[in-house]
Amino acid sequence: MDTLILAEKLSKHFGAVRAVDELDLQVGAGEILGLVGPDGAGKTTTMRLLCGAYEPTSGRAVVAGFDLGHHVAEARAATGYVPQRYSLYPDLTPAENLEFFSEAYGMPRAKRVARAKELLDFVGLTAFANRRSEFLSGGMKQKLSLACALIHRPRVLLLDEPTGGVDPVARQEFWRLLYTLLAEGSAILISTPYMDEASRCHRVGLMNHGRLMAEGTPHEIVRPLVGHILELAAAPQRAARQIAGAFPGVADVQVFGDRLHLRADDPAPVMERLPRALTDAGITVTHLRSAEATLEDVFTELLTHDS
User: Fold this and answer.
1) pLDDT in tens, 236-294
2) CA 242 to CA 51: how far, in whole Å?
3) For the chain, which terminal residue's Cβ has fewer other Cβ atoms within 10 angstroms, N or C?
4) 108 preceded by a cis bond (ω within 30 of 0)
């Protein structure tokens, strides 16, 4: 598998702030790596380093075989970048935006129209080709951003939270397009606030303070917590959380909707004794049972230890 995105000890400092701190990562052709982390973790700075918008303080980045320290123009020509915020021209139509970007990338005029039509078909915007972009829905805007990033047929895609604020149906459609690109051999680095999206990636990097706290397949990342997560449904939830959090053997308690997830090194005694303690406190227990560990459980644990 060809490595199309490579970072080696990549760092970016803003004064005393280490936005990215000796980051190592790689993404191969046909692979998608998801970056997950809180605000300020360094995800956007990483994207900007890899697209050549920032110069690193130290370390090395290679994109599509081009070292950004020496061949930044060639690396940019092989990269499609979708920033976190919608940045296309709102007064232009999708067709006009694609025309603008194809010209900016120096595409011959004879190829521009055909490529724009191909991409509008690909992202499902043919029927809206002549609607001003400001009047597109959030999901349509994101698909247009993807189309513009693909205009020059890049081998590498850098996507910075591309589905933020987009409805679930539009997110599903966006991911269908990404899988199509992966099948064609693209390498994709995506940051996302959604754990269900992260679980769709071949590998996930959990990031904080500019560093990767954990990296691997979703299965590899959750493996250490398998058998250590309990699900508690009880009311009132706030009181149940207080008691569970102070209960011997419970290392951490997190809210998951109307349920609580408890992390315990030895779940058996907790399952045996905690329901009685909750009942004695006047709390109604619906169930306490083993639960499947999730990426969110792992991420919460890592953040707790990294704070």
Assistant:
1) 999 999 999 999 999 999 998 899 999 998 999 999 999 999 999 999 999 999 999 99
2) 46
3) C
4) no
On whether residue 272 sits in a domain, the answer given is yes
For residue 307 the two structure tokens come to 């704070």
**What letter does residue 283 receive in the DSSP assignment?**
P
DSSP code for 253: E
CB burial of 163-189 (b: ≥16 within 10 Å; e: otherwise) equals bbebeeebbebbbebbeebbeeebbbb
The overall pTM is greater than 0.70: yes
**In the sheet that 17-28 helps form, which strands lie side by side, from edge to edge?**
17-28, 3-14, 58-63, 66-67
Alpha-carbon span 229 to 254, nearest angstrom: 11
Output the domain CATH number for residue 241.
3.30.70.100
Q: By residue range, what is the domain housing residue 108?
A: 3-222
- Token code pair at residue 264: 């315990």
